[in-house]
Amino acid sequence: MIIQLKPTTNKRELERIIDRLVKDGIQRENIDIIKGDPYTVVGIKGDTRKLSEDHYKTLNSVYQVIRISNPCKELTRQFHPRSTIIELSNKHRIGEGLSVIAGPCAVESYEQLFTTAKIVKNAGANILRGGAYKPRTSPDTFQGLGEEGLKYLSRVKQELGMPIITEITDPRDLELFLDYDVDIIQVGARNCQNFRLLDEMAKIDRPVMLKRGGEVPVNEYLLAALRIYRGNQKVILCERGGKTSDPKHRNVLNLNNVAYIKKNYHLPIIVDPSHGSGIRESVAPLSYAGIASGADGVMIEVHCNPEEALCDGEQSIDGEIHELIPKLHELYELVRS
Fold this sequence. Notes:
The protein has 337 residues and is of the alpha/beta class.
């Protein structure tokens, strides 16, 4: 339930409404105040069936009362009209302007990471990605360098001044991620509904990117995001597509989800055209389509030598990133003009 206040409402009137809600049995921690322009919204979480809409509508300072049946109501734009903005160490703000996350699927060596990082930074990327822990399907494939990969990411972050994002697969590794000052901790598609891991992400003061699992419906995905958000509001969504019955395509990027989430929910959302296709030639067109559908940015796999990559070389690009990013900026501005 939300109570939208009139623009003329003062602090004293707002406190009276809060006191009334508490008297009616609502705990203060379940009351959110979202200051907008020109309206301020009082959002009430939990079971609000005991509250009388008619009573609150009669208060002079109340513009309207709206009941929201959506179980993820804290994430809705009705509850939180303004888009969530997440600021990183380099002052880049995800959700405000185009975000480009780029780098190798896996950290293979310091030299490989540094060379690739220079490519993506010079091309205009804001954030460096690189996998230190790789939850690959086959145990015989490269599984990542683990802590050594985190060391390389941290070192390159300091040398190039780029925030870093990398995937966590086990809550027992969380202290390492914090010690190496990972700017954004990614929860991958395979762990989208790993509730123990999500609960640990809710306890930290660090941005978390949650990828949608390929078989996870959007309503369940948003509930997973809510699980983090209730403790840690620095949540970034990421649509990475999923498999279909069509054998022609490894994955299909679900842009319906992007448009739906951007319209109805306030968290920033990124698209992953690399995993969303699995095909190098499709990365650029799907990047454009993702931005056109409302995404706040893209996460692209870039490798200094894709043919020699130990992981996902077939969907990694290299020098093409220099041509792609300027076009994404043009499209971003056009879509939002």
